[in-house]
Design brief:
Helix content: 55-70%
Radius of gyration: 28 Å
Shape: extended
Number of strands: 0
Structural class: mainly alpha
Length: about 425
């Protein structure tokens, strides 16, 4: 299903798939005017990055002088930076109570209340040192102090964000839209209609992050009525700009029959490969399932295994990625409970793991044979030759004979592939 959007009042840029860690980095995707021109995006990004390096007092002076880009950077640096530090302090305090008994937690809470007046009178440096020394009461007091400063900074800086949005700065439109939707510690009353309108303005300027959010809203029918046509359109806009989460979500919409790919490069498997190449674990899992079952791609058990390996064993949704690591026992033999659907896959997995983790020549020879004949994957003489080469190097005479025969059959493109290292693409 479509991954859920972040909860309100949490750092948005950390919770959305495919987003960069820094808000200023989004500037390259949001423009103050149309049409969207790559050179203009670069120019906006350069100016915002330059303001990000200048002394804060200089940025504030420029913002007060009417520079909306400086105003946006001042808002981001003052409000977000302090809020982020406050949240880190709160998280560190929470971690101290995680493994405590309820009675001990209550004692810690009471002590923090008793210590609050004394701690509030401490200088910053002393309070920070106490917090860093794992004093729970000090950590709570330091987090509250930072949050209070963030609120004061927001009161000063929020009008700058409003002015930047009114001037059409795409980054400001995105941030202000999120504020009206209840994200980023909002300084405005909740107004979902206005928030969506601001995001649509930013998306129309070419902002992939705004398009990604809107795709999620329209696909799930939350905040906006469900509209598959608009969901696909907005996810496409973001996916076309290589936003990992949008590529994954668009692939899911196509797979559910809620839209039609524009071509082979826009097919679900192609989109999942793009997302996986950027590190999306859900995309690796989805690709693994496709290669295992042959859904939309040629069945390829070994490629499925490699995708499962990249996805990792953890999977809270209970899909094949979590089951696959329990198919074999410690000797790499299929367990007795393996059902018909998984039995052949488990046998291939057994051979593959013996070849890759134990350098078993017989297993390498078997993989070469499967690649040569296309039994559990599409025929591939280059891959077959590589496995025969490895098996022959470990004393398998039959592998040497087969390798010699394969070399005689290689085409010119296959010979070129043979000279190159094996690929790691999904």
């Amino acid at each position: 299903m479509i991954p859920k959007l972040p909860s309100p009042h949490r750092p948005f840029h950390r919770r959305l798939a495919g987003f960069g860690a820094l808000l200023l980095a989004l500037a390259a995707n949001h423009l103050p005017a149309q049409p969207v021109v790559p050179n203009a995006r670069a120019a906006v990004a350069a100016r915002l990055n330059a303001w990000g390096e200048r002394p804060l007092a200089e940025v504030l002076a420029a913002a007060n002088g009417g520079d909306n880009e400086a105003g946006f950077v001042y808002w981001s640096r003052t409000v977000n930076a302090v809020l982020e530090e406050s949240e880190v302090a709160q998280t560190r305090a929470f971690e101290m109570t995680q493994n405590q008994l309820l009675e001990d937690k209550l004692k810690m809470f009471d002590l923090a209340k008793q210590q609050a007046p004394r701690l509030e009178a401490m200088a910053d440096a002393d309070l920070r040192r106490a917090a860093e020394a794992a004093d729970y009461s000090a950590r709570i007091a330091w987090a509250n102090r930072l949050r209070g400063r963030a609120e004061a900074a927001r009161a000063l800086a929020h009008p700058m964000l409003e002015r930047a949005a009114q001037a059409g700065l795409g980054n400001a439109l995105f941030q202000l839209g999120c504020q009206y939707l209840g994200y980023y510690h909002p300084a405005v009353p909740l107004d979902e209609a206005r928030g969506v309108a601001l995001l649509r303005q930013a998306a129309d300027q070419g902002g992939p992050n705004s398009a990604f959010l809107l795709g999620g809203f329209f696909s799930e029918g939350r905040i906006t009525p469900r509209n598959d046509t608009l969901a696909v359109d907005y996810f496409r806009r973001a996916a076309d700009q290589n936003l990992m989460g949008a590529q994954f979500n668009l692939a899911l919409l196509y797979a559910e029959g809620r839209g039609e790919p524009r071509g082979e490069g826009d097919a679900p498997a192609a989109l999942l490969r793009k997302a996986a190449a950027q590190g999306s674990q859900p995309a690796w899992r989805a690709l693994a399932e496709r290669y295992r079952t042959g859904l939309g791609v040629a069945r390829d058990y070994v490629r499925a295994l490699r995708c499962y390996e990249r996805a990792g064993p953890e999977d809270a949704n209970g899909s094949g990625a979590s089951r696959v690591f329990n198919l074999l026992d410690e000797r790499f033999a299929p367990k007795g409970h393996v059902g018909r659907e998984w039995l052949l896959f488990a046998r291939v997995m057994s051979v593959y793991l013996r070849a890759t983790t134990r350098a078993d020549a017989a297993a390498m020879l078997q993989l070469g044979d499967w690649y040569e004949t296309g039994r559990y994957m599409p025929p591939d003489l280059v891959e077959a030759g590589r496995w025969y080469h490895s098996a022959a190097g470990r004393g398998a005479a039959e592998a040497g004979r087969r390798l010699a025969a394969i070399r005689e059959r290689l085409t010119a493109p296959e010979k070129l592939r043979w000279e190159q290292p094996p690929g790691t693409e999904p």
